[in-house]
Specification:
The longest helix is centred in the last third of the chain and has 22 residues, at 366-387. The chain contains 16 helices and 12 strands. α6 (130-141) packs parallel to α7 (155-162), α6 packs parallel to α16 and α15 (355-364) packs across α16. The chain has an 8-stranded parallel sheet. It is an alpha/beta fold.
Length: 405
């Protein structure tokens, strides 16, 4: 059948007309109707950044600023994202991809995916249910959850909501009796792993957070006092410090913490111990030499040192230092499934996310966290199929091209 030019034009015009919008998905319709382009339900999200935009709108300036901040000029924070561009994927074809397996074994427990939820403090600042909503989401989606020492919910309550043991992130403080009390409590709650944070001994100059507080019309001092000498009053409100005398504490991380500190911690902690914040080959080798069970490559999401170096770049030399002797976990800057794939190809055992699931929490509570996990899991599956890998064991350095600087 021959169709005239005029008829073809009419067909194209009808295809481009507004009623076609009614046949598209709810996310597209919502974006078309909402003047600010924000999603109005968790299910409408196309990637994790959709939740960031909602969180920015719904959170008070100081709370979003605390979440968004890096240190100094935020150079390391930005480097974390830019670093992924240093690596491209080499993809293979003609592989039977009808089934893929994303499972990973960590210290005897098998998880369905290598994506875990990083420790983030004070989660009730972002949603009324805080860590409990996150725990329920982790339970529903079967993900590993870390709990921060400065969480706004106790380790016992979060463990109950998760319905399984969680891992515990330790800020030991500079007062050993407090360290002992925190460790004993994590042990009693059934935590199988403690991650000692070692990247904040030098402090951190979080200017974006400070400027955000200045733009917030609320009286922040009514809820917390983050400066000495009264900062411990803020910590005393945290459930993990309930009933403890913090009057002798001057810092959350001992400024004199060294490798001998690991021996002292080993004496009171009988389970798995990893270090969170290792970013060099030398420290990775020392960690293994001192009997650590694993390392977590991290620059605290760009909130610790102002190195200007991406976590994904640090991962490469840490993996080289560990030489397969213990698991290597990594976090800081991960936002897409391809980011996760790149880390796995470079030798990571598992990958942590922080800000993305908090964006989801702030936006839509438990449902938002679940959707973030769904998105990243789906994206990782797509990346694996595109690369021709059917399991994590098949992902290796051969799938990576490094653009040398």
């Amino acid at each position: 059948m021959i169709i005239s030019r005029r008829a073809r034009r009419r067909v194209l015009q009808s295809m481009l007309a507004a009623p076609v919008l009614a046949g598209l998905g709810p996310a597209v319709r919502a974006l078309g109707q909402d003047g600010d382009g924000l999603i109005t339900a968790a299910g409408q999200a196309l990637d994790v950044f959709d939740f960031e935009r909602v969180a920015h709108k719904v959170l008070p300036p100081a709370h979003f600023g605390y979440l968004a901040t890096g240190v100094d000029s935020d150079e390391t924070l930005h480097a974390n994202r830019a670093g992924f561009a240093n690596y491209s994927l080499r993809v293979r074809r003609m592989v039977d991809l009808s089934r893929i397996d994303m499972s990973v074994n960590l210290f005897g427990t098998t998880w369905e995916t290598p994506i875990f939820l990083d420790p983030v403090g004070s989660q009730r600042a972002f949603h009324a249910e805080g860590e409990l909503a996150v725990a329920r989401a982790a339970r529903a989606k079967k993900h590993l959850q870390f709990l921060s020492t400065v969480a706004s919910t106790s380790v016992e309550d979060v463990t109950a909501a998760r319905g399984a043991p969680i891992w515990y992130q330790l800020y030991p403080t500079d007062h050993w009796p407090i360290t002992q009390a925190l460790v004993r409590r994590a042990e009693a709650a059934g935590c199988p792993v403690i991650a000692l944070t070692v990247d904040l001994q030098g402090g951190s100059n979080r200017l974006t957070a400070a400027r955000s507080i200045a733009r917030d019309s609320r009286d922040c001092a009514a809820c917390h006092t983050s400066r000495p000498p009264r900062w411990f009053e803020d910590m005393a409100r945290k459930p993990m410090f309930k009933g403890l005398d913090l009057s002798a504490v001057t810092d959350m991380t001992p400024i004199g913490m060294d490798w001998d500190y690991i021996r002292r911690l080993r004496d009171i902690w009988p389970r798995k111990l990893i270090l969170k914040g290792i970013v060099t080959r030398e420290d990775a080798e020392l960690a293994v030499d001192h009997g650590l069970d694993g390392v977590l490559v991290s620059n605290h999401g760009g909130r610790a040192e102002d190195s200007g170096r991406a976590s994904i770049d640090s991962l490469v030399e840490v993996v080289a230092g560990v030489r397969g002797r213990v698991p290597v976990l990594v976090d800081s800057g991960f936002r897409r499934g391809t980011d996760v794939f790149k880390a796995l190809a470079l030798g990571a055992t598992a990958v942590g996310i922080g800000r993305p699931y908090i964006w989801g929490l702030a936006s839509f509570g438990q449902e938002g966290v679940e959707k973030v996990l769904d998105i990243l899991r789906e994206e990782l599956g797509i990346a694996m199929r595109q690369a021709g890998t059917r399991s994590l064991a098949e992902i290796n350095r051969s799938f990576i091209v490094h653009h040398r600087q």
